[in-house]
Amino acid sequence: MFKFLVALLIFVLLFDVSNAQELQTDSGATECTASNTEQGWWRESQPIMGTVVAVEVRSEGRASACSAIAAVMTEMKRIDALMTTWSPDSELSRLNREAPKRYVPIEAELFDLIDRSLDFSRMTAGAFDVTYASAGRFYDFRQGIRPDDAELEKAVNAIDYRYLLLDRKHKAIRYRHPEVFVDLGGIAKGYAVDRSIEILEAHGVSEAMVSAGGDSRIVGDRGGEPWVVGVRDPRVRGANVALLPLMDVSVSTSGDYERFFEDNGTRYHHIIDPTTGDSARGVRSVTILGADALMTDALSTSVFVMGLEEGIALIDALNGVDAIVVDGEGRLHVSRDLLDMNNTVATMEGR
Ligand code: ADP
Ligand code: MG
């Protein structure tokens, strides 16, 4: 934690840099299929989990780099196949079909992730709720489809994480409401990134970055320098509102600009307020920094739903977690620890 906070000292100095890449990987990394012995960095990206998965590692040779990266891609695909709601064949789809009727024993890994998601529901007073999808499933952001009022009213009644009954002994779950639908889109990518890092470490990799869409985790640094991760401007494509020099940390961003459509001037996007079944409005993006990606993923979605004040208060109450929020007017806000850093920088500049 300390390490990345130190790195963040310069973040405010870099504030308002536009036209930078979301991820600065300009130090000569090569595709896994190519070799670059000079730099020793290897990179590959693939479309998985409805997003782009990118893996970049430092490794002595091409063969070891490629086998480590391939193992990560395989793992990502495995987790996706288990947890997607896009396919009727996934374990989660089976749960969604059968759990309204009876306790359904499921694979321990899926059970445990749902169990973890409930920790975040309790921590956020229900802002994070995987049953959001009871209403969320009626939206199609690509096609601009949303539920009508009657549909939405009915669906909202089925949003409540307390409808999930967990039998820990048998790793079985039952839904206590017939219309409940679970989707893990707010936590599964973070989980998959954490698993990927474990796999890389088992392959002997000690410097790496793995990202799945807006969820990234960095191990070590980048050849003695911090990685530079951009916080995107939610309204200007290709621009950043901040650049974060980071090492040994996870970073997740949730924004209203990823998947959305507009109808009569109202923006409908994929982060749903469980109390209304409607898109959460109030902030434009939330970036969370913390030790693991499962947590930063869940908390970025949570803080987005909670809004600026409540959200920052939650983050300030947690140890080793920080937030950067772009509010509804495009203003930047940071959690207390980062604010202290900014003040330190301001003081240093003022001398
Ligand atoms: P992404 O990286 O996919 O943009 P986010 O971390 O921003 O993901 O989370 C958005 C996803 O989380 C949505 O696509 C949906 O699957 C899920 N989600 C939306 N609202 C909630 C909520 N209130 N609680 C838990 N998960 C949610
Ligand atoms: Mg998230």
What is the number of E strands?
Answer: 17
Assembly form of the protein: single chain
- Percent of residues in helical segments? 25-40%
Q: Can you summarize the main beta sheet?
A: 9 strands, mixed
Strand order within the widest sheet? 2-3-4-8-9-12-15-16-17
Task: Choose one word for the global shape.
Answer: globular
Order of helices and strands: HEEEEHHEHHHEEHEEEEEEEEHHEEH
Rg, please?
20 Å
Beta-strand level of the residues, as a percent range?
Answer: 15-25%
| Cα distance spanning the termini | 27 Å
What is bound: which ligands? adenosine-5'-diphosphate, magnesium ion
**Overall pLDDT:** 89
Low-confidence stretches: 9-31
**SS class:** alpha+beta
Q: Tell me the number of helical segments per DSSP (H or I, 4 or more residues long).
A: 10
